[in-house]
Amino acid sequence: MFVPSPGWWRGGPQLGPLGVWAGLRAALAPAAASRARPARPYSLLERSSLSESTIARKTPLKEWTLIVNPFGRLQARLPCDIAVRPLDPYHYPDADRVLVTVSGVEGGSLDLDSIHVRYDETLKQMAIISDSIDRQASVEVKVPLKFDLNIRTSGTGCVKVQEAECDDCRIETEQGNSIVQSVKTVTIDKLQGSSVNISTEDGLLKAEYLYTESSSLSSAAGDITLGSIHGDLTVHSKMGNITIDSLNGYLKASTHQGAVDVYVSQMGNVDLKSHKGSITIKVPSSLKAHLQLSGSKVDVNPEITLQEISEVPKDNGIIINGKKVTFFPS
Prior knowledge:
Pfam families: DUF4097 (PF13349). This is Family with sequence similarity 185 member A. Residues 122-290 form the DUF4097 domain. It comes from Sarcophilus harrisii (Tasmanian devil). There is one protein chain. The protein is 4% helix and 54% strand. It is mainly beta. It is elongated, with a radius of gyration of 23 Å. The protein has a domain at 62-176. The protein has one helix at 44-56; strands spanning 18-21, 24-30, 59-67, 73-78, 81-86, 97-104, 116-120, 125-129, 138-143, 148-153, 159-162, 169-172, 177-182, 186-200, 205-219, 224-237, 242-248, 251-255, 260-266, 270-274, 279-282, 289-295, 297-300, 304-307, 310-314, 317-322, 324-327. The chain is built from 1 helix and 27 strands. The protein starts with 17 loop residues before the first strand and ends with a strand.
């Protein structure tokens, strides 16, 4: 833990914090051959635009309207794309409907009888399930704003969620993308898939588990708090703090005014920036890495041994470079 005071270091021998005050930058890379960042695929927004242009050419083929409890839950199991958005509050002020639309290409092999849409009043659960509907189909669902979400797609099925304010959000894809856009708090238990994009305007963005090839998370004014992260991650908050409990993969994190606190469990390329806040990096005892730390003040736990170290004054701060970092438990 990093606390900005003279006796700032706390913790047992398994962690080695590196503190960078008034941020500027902290960068780490593996001591062995540096792992290059993967070639950039289509961004999620690019993929989203492609998908939306495709969806726009599809025709609505079947629709359902169901009366529901405003505080229920959506469960979806589909092999195709699904988009979830809130009901229009002006048309549905009681928030007691779910609207489902299945679209596809006219003349295609879409089997509408293979999709099951039903609501269980006892469980307060809306279910949309199909194992065999055409993968080129798409499903749009409009739900009450507070509906919890449990969505899983197979194959290349993508998931897009807009303006959700649910307490429980679980999304899992096999090869498809996941996009979550919200104006308020986003709390996610688990996200699994090829790539994930989550953005909020304000409020907390929290995810317990991310298992993806690549993820992009952003918040204009809220904090971003992440649990166990597996895969490459880009995260940005303009005004809030960024906290990552465990990271296994590439990381690029930046904030303008907030603090950054990261535990790097397995070393990949790590690039952290904070213009006006502090940066804290915590590492396991076996860490060996190249590093560059720069800021108005840089504190390194004395139990961390820096080899081939160089310190270079710059502007009103300092840059520390080292080729290896090894932490020796006491």
